[in-house]
């Protein structure tokens, strides 16, 4: 027999949920229960494989994905993905934005600004800077998280078996991406939800509060590490469903 919530979920057309991962991770972030929970409840899901090569490029690829979707969309981010959905969310089919442990920069700000505006964040000390050279001689710097710092910084409450996989499957982000400045911020004109991890050493709690207040976000607090989609996938799904009902009204 269908529950009251399941019946309510069938009372409106479901938006497509686009999941956008952040730095030093890949799309498998969403496979610990978020994708399964959304599909179980009948939501169309698209997972965006974030290139992590720079904000303009990453946003352009997100927009190309949005061009393939018909109907309303909710964008869901983790970590640096918050900057990508903030700028890419200006697409008219995007009806709302959900930030799971993500920064919410304003136009004229970068991800680094969100990490450094208030004291208490500890991303830089755990970062491993890796120079690279492209075939044309262009040089850049990739960022990974030092293996010995990974659990402390990103996943203190993740089981050892999952933690080992997360460390092994890190994808580097181009360091310049964190300094790229946004030219627009979709949360100024669209509803937003912030899932705030209270045990996150990456983004200071004062920053989370500052961002949510200026965006007038709906806030859900969790005693979680940075790895919310891994540790609390059911909460992420519940917030997405709340947002879907809200934008359908």
UniProtKB/TrEMBL annotation:
UniProt protein name: Secreted protein
InterPro entries in the record: AB_hydrolase_1, AB_hydrolase_fold, Sec-Metab_Biosynth_Hydrolase
Domain AB hydrolase-1: 17-239
Record-linked Gene3D superfamilies: alpha/beta hydrolase (3.40.50.1820)
């Amino acid at each position: 027999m269908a529950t009251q919530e399941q019946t309510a979920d069938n009372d409106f057309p479901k938006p497509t949920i686009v999941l956008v991962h952040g730095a030093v991770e890949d799309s498998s972030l969403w496979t610990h229960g978020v994708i399964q929970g959304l599909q179980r409840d009948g939501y169309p899901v698209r997972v965006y494989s974030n290139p992590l090569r720079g904000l303009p490029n990453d946003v352009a690829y997100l927009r190309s994905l949005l061009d393939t979707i018909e109907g309303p969309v909710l964008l869901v981010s983790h970590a640096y993905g918050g900057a990508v959905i903030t700028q890419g969310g200006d697409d008219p089919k995007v009806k709302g934005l959900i930030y799971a442990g993500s920064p919410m920069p304003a136009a004229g700000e970068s991800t680094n600004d969100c990490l450094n505006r208030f004291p208490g964040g500890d991303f830089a000390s755990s970062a491993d800077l890796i120079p690279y050279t492209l075939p044309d001689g262009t040089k850049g710097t990739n960022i990974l998280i030092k293996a010995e710092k990974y659990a402390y910084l990103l996943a203190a409450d993740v089981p050892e078996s999952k933690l080992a996989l997360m460390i092994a499957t890190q994808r580097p982000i181009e360091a310049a991406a964190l300094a790229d400045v946004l030219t627009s911020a979709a949360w100024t004109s669209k509803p937003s939800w912030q899932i705030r991890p209270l045990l996150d050493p990456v983004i200071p709690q004062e920053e989370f509060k500052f961002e949510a207040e200026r965006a007038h976000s709906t806030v859900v607090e969790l005693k979680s590490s940075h790895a919310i989609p891994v540790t609390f996938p059911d909460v992420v799904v519940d917030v997405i469903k709340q947002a879907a009902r809200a934008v359908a009204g």
